[in-house]
Design brief:
The protein is built from 7 helices and 27 strands. By secondary structure, the protein is α+β, with helices and mostly antiparallel strands. It has 3 domains: about 110 residues, DNA Polymerase III, subunit A, domain 2 (DNA Polymerase III, Chain A, domain 2, Roll); about 120 residues, Roll (DNA Polymerase III, Chain A, domain 2), CATH 3.10.150.10; about 110 residues, DNA Polymerase III, subunit A, domain 2 (DNA Polymerase III, Chain A, domain 2), CATH 3.10.150.10. Strands 6-2-3-4-18-17-16-10-14 form a 9-stranded antiparallel sheet. Strands 15-11-12-13-27-26-25-19-23 form a 9-stranded antiparallel sheet. α3 runs antiparallel to α4. The protein is elongated, with a radius of gyration of 25 Å.
Length: about 375
């Protein structure tokens, strides 16, 4: 193998593909990144049995070939290289990396032992990459990272043709988002894909960051979901089907509603939260024309700030874990946010300022002493 490639392209491809390499691989060979050169491109691949990643980049291929390299080392080497074109050449069990006057000889892993990557499901939908990133950013923060509760580590997608509902929960909050994509009809005897899927939230979050604006193809079956676009392809192993009835919990039936400027409320909660101790709440009192944000009174001191708001319904004081409230507020895609409440210890609804909001975030309130 002998390849010449632009350093910026190589760095970006190596960094993106390397995220699919497990920190503690099941077998040593899975610590590697597979490089395959053919035609006018270099393909980089990684796999950990749960997630696979492939990235194709343009390159000048003088000699085709393939090599398996330690992924973490390759990422660090590419970061350190000077800004010049890179030449990769395979010599027996060593891949020589030349860039300007710098040269590395990286020992390869046994390429024949590397497992075959799973075949991706046929595409069943097309979505803009920017919208996919937005949905992930709104939903994934609500999923737990506690892997002992697998059902809560996922984003649930329910698909009805071109209309999709997505949700995640960690038992203390639920984030829900509805959106539309373009359906790709099944061809020939190919079966229609399932009407729902459960995607591990951590893998979804890290994957979609690599897809910018432009068409992204989504395919899924009973075992895998695939995301492809811009020369990049990811497959993620799906989880089981059991999930809570999140739609019933995301209704808009509340006695008190407040409409507030999002940026102003976020800034206030962050400031006041500086004196909130780990186990204490930030308190929000919703009353005529304003929201009083308070915290502290313990060992760190106290703070209070008033934010203008349009409030309808009875006054109410609610306590929040600050980071949980901020996750919901930052998911709002309108200048103003609406908060719905039914009492001081009841869950609070956070939505966009719209009659039929597509984003809804239900967060548990803390009991106030």
């Amino acid at each position: 193998m002998k390849v010449t490639i632009d350093l910026a392209l190589l760095r970006d491809a190596v960094a993106w593909t390397g995220r699919a390499v497990a920190s503690r691989p099941a077998v040593p060979v899975l610590s590697g990144m597979l490089l395959e050169a053919e035609g006018d491109k270099l393909r980089l691949s990684a796999y950990d049995y749960d997630v696979s990643a492939q990235c194709d980049v343009s390159a000048q291929v003088a000699e085709p070939g393939r090599a398996l390299l330690p992924a973490r080392l390759l990422v660090e080497v590419c970061k350190s290289l000077p800004r010049k074109s890179v030449e990769l050449s395979l010599s027996e069990a060593e891949l020589v990396v030349r860039c300007g006057t710098a040269e590395f000889g990286l020992l390869t892993l046994p390429v024949d032992d590397y497992p075959k990557l799973p075949a991706p499901p046929h595409p069943s939908a097309v979505i803009d990459g920017a919208l996919l990133q937005q949905v992930s950013g709104q939903i994934t923060p609500a999923a737990t990272r506690d892997t002992t509760i697998p059902m809560l580590c996922v984003v649930r997608f329910d698909i009805e043709g071109e209309n999709v509902s997505a949700a995640a929960t960690d038992r203390y909050r639920i984030a829900g988002r509805s959106f539309a994509w373009t359906a790709v009809p099944a061809q020939g005897k190919r079966k229609a894909p399932p009407a729902s899927m459960m995607v591990p939230a951590a893998q979804l979050e890290s994957t979609v960051k690599g897809y910018g604006p432009g068409q992204v193809e989504i395919g899924w079956d009973n075992k895998l979901v695939s995301i492809a676009g811009g020369g990049r392809l990811t497959t993620i192993r799906l989880m089981g089907e059991d999930y809570i009835d999140y739609r019933a919990r995301l209704s808009l039936d509340y006695s008190t509603w407040a409409t507030v400027d999002v940026a102003t409320l976020v800034a206030a909660v962050k400031r006041i939260g500086l004196v909130a101790e780990k186990s204490t709440a930030v308190r929000l009192t919703f009353r005529d024309g304003e929201v009083l944000v308070e915290a502290g009174g313990g060992g760190l001191g106290r703070a209070a700030e008033i934010v203008e708001a349009d409030v309808t319904g009875p006054p109410v004081t609610v306590g929040f874990q600050p980071s949980f409230l901020l996750d919901g507020l930052t998911g709002v895609d309108t200048p103003r946010v609406r908060l719905g409440m039914n009492g001081p210890a009841k869950p609070v609804m956070v939505t966009e300022d719209a009659e039929q909001p597509v984003y809804r975030y239900l967060v548990m309130a803390l009991r106030l002493g």
